[in-house]
Amino acid sequence: MQEKIIILDFGSQTTQLIGRRVRELNMYCEILPYNKFPYDDPSVIGVILSGSPFSVYDDKSFKTDLTRLRGKYPVLGICYGAQLLAYTSGGSVEPADTREYGRALLTTVDNTDPLLHNIAPGSQVWMSHGDTIISLPDDFSVIASTEKVRVAAYRIEGEPTWGVQFHPEVFHSTCGTDILLNFVKDICKGKQDWSAASFIDTTVTQLKEQLGNDKVVLGLSGGVDSSVAAVLLNKAIGSNLTCIFVDHGMLRKNEFHDVMRDYQGLGLNVIGVDASKKFFAELAGVTDPEKKRKIIGKGFIDVFDEEAHKLTDVRWLGQGTIYPDCIESLSITGTTIKSHHNVGGLPEKMNLKLCEPLRLLFKDEVRAVGRELGMPEHLITRHPFPGPGLAVRILGDITPEKVQILQEADHIFIQGLRDHGLYDKVWQAGVILLPVQSVGVMGDERTYERAVALRAVTSTDAMTADWAHLPYEFLAEVSNKIINKVRGINRVTYDISSKPPSTIEWE
Questions:
Q1: Has 355 been annotated as catalytic?
Q2: 169, 365, 505, 507: which is the annotated catalytic residue?
Q3: DSSP, residue by residue, 273-298
Q4: Measured on CA atoms in the order 280, 282, 285, 286, is the torsion positive or negative?
Q5: Which entry of 3, 29, 129, 167 is annotated as an active-site residue?
Q6: CB half-sphere exposure, 461, CA atoms < 13 A
Q7: SS3 category, 327
C-alpha cells in the first residue's frame, strides 16, 4: 500500500507547489478539496492545510472540521491553514496593518522543535498574507518569529500539529524544503519511496486490475502526456489498447506524419485520421476563443465516436489528463479559467468509462515516467502544445491560409531554438498570429501585412511561468527569417509577460 500525505486545498495559488515539493522528497501526496478528506483511507500518514485567498473570519471562507484531523494525523497548516487552526481553537486573527508580502528573515527559531530542526535564525522565508495571528490559545507555542511577524510558526502542545505563517513551498523560502522534509521524514515517518519507477509498477498493476481484458481506446495528440499514457497503458494491456491520432488541420508543420512514425516505432496500435476539412468548416467565421475550444472539443468527440464504433467491445476511454489540466479546467472556487477538451465530454458521448493513468502527475513527473519507460528523448522533451493546436494561437477566425502562414513561422522559431541549443532551456514556445495588419516596406514597395508575436516561457509545472530571456541576437535572426521567408508577415514582436497574470497561451 502506497503511503501518502493529503494536501487539503483551500484555494491557494501555490497549493500545487506544495504537492510538487513533497513529491520532490520522494513522498507521494494527493491534493484534495478542503472538505474531501478520505477519513477511511489507511494509507494517509499526514495532512497539510494550504493557503487561501480568503480570510478565516469571512463568512464565505472555506472551512472544515479540523477536530477530526488533529491528534489523529500529523498536521501542518500553511498561511491560511495556520490561521484556521489558531482561529478555530480560540486564537485571534486580524487584518495586518500592512499586507505582508515578500522576503522575510526568521529572527528567532526554536530549532529543537522537530519541524524546525536544523533551521537557523536568519533563514529567508516568503510571506504572502493580508491577515496575521494576533494571539494564540494557551496550548499553542510560538517556535519562530520574524521582525514583523511574532507568530511566524507555532506548535500545538500535546499533539503533532504545526502552523507556519510563511510559504515553505515557494523557491524564495530558502529553508522551505528542509522544513517540509522535517515534516515528511521526521514527523510523518514517511518512507520516501515514491519515484517514477514505483509509480509505473503500481500503476501498471492497478491498470491490469482495473481493466482486466477490457479494450481501451485512447486519443493521441502528439504531446508528451498522451504519448506517455499510451505507452503506460500498452505496457499494462498490450493489444487491448487502440490509439487514435486525429489531424484537425491545426497541428504544427509536418507533425501528423512525424508523430505517426514515432508512434509506430513505439509499437503502438495507432489509427491516423485526417479530419482537417471537417474542423475548418466548423470553425469558419468563429473568433471567440472559448467557442473555438468547444468546437474542436466536440469535433474530437464526433471523430472519436465514429472511429470507436468501428472497433468492437471497447469499454474504456484512455486520456493523458494531468494535474494542471484538472486544476485549470475548474478551480476550487468553481470558476472556469479555460476548458480543456481532454477532461470532459468524450466518455459521456461514447458511453465509455474513463481511464486517466497520469491525472495525479505534474508535467516533469510525466517526463520522468516516460524516460523510465524507455521512450525516445525527443518525444519526452517536446514542449507542451495545446489540444486545439494553432487554433488558439490564431487570434480571430481560422482559415487554412492563416494556419499555413503560422505553421511556417512557427517552424522557423522552433527549429531556431533547436539549432541554437535553446529548445531544452524553454518550457514552451510558439508563434501567435495577431488579428492586426501593419505597415511595412519591402524593397521599394509599401506593404500592409500580418504581425506575429513570439512566445517562449520558462516553467517547471505550467502553474507559473516567466518569459524566456532569449538572446537579442537570436530573436533578431528569427524575426529576419520569418519576415523574409513567410509571405504575409511583415512584423515580429516578442511577448514579455509572465504567468500570472498572463496565461502561457493567448487564448
A1: no
A2: 169
A3: EE-HHHHHHHHTT---HHHHHHHHHH
A4: negative
A5: 167
A6: 23
A7: helix
Question: Could you say which of 29, 79, 188, 243 is catalytic?
Answer: 79
- Sign of the dihedral defined by the CA atoms of residues 297, 299, 302, 306, in that order: negative
Contact 414, 455 (CB under 8 A): no
**Which grid coordinates belong to 248?**
484537425
pLDDT per residue as tens digits for the range 86-115: 999 999 999 877 666 788 999 999 999 999
To the query of whether residue 326 is one of the catalytic residues in this protein, the response is no
User: Which DSSP category does 341 fall into?
Assistant: G
Report how far residue 24's alpha carbon sits from residue 158's, in angstroms, rounded to the nearest whole number: 30
Q: What is the pLDDT of residues 348-360, one digit of tens each?
A: 666 788 899 998 8
Sheet holding 270-274, edge to edge: 270-274, 241-247, 215-220, 314-318, 353-355
Burial of 27 (0-12, 13-18, 19+ CB in 10 A): buried
Residue 79 catalytic? Answer: yes
Grid cell for residue 336: 472556469
Task: Give the C-alpha separation, 186 to 116, whole Å.
Answer: 11
| E strand spans, 136-183 | 140-146, 153-156, 161-164
* Antiparallel, parallel or unpaired: β 124-135 and 92-109: antiparallel
248/388 Cα distance (integer angstroms): 8
pTM: 0.75
Q: At which residue does the C-alpha cell 520569418 appear?
A: 482
CA distance 185 to 192: 8
Confidence of residue 343 (pLDDT cuts 50, 70, 90): very low
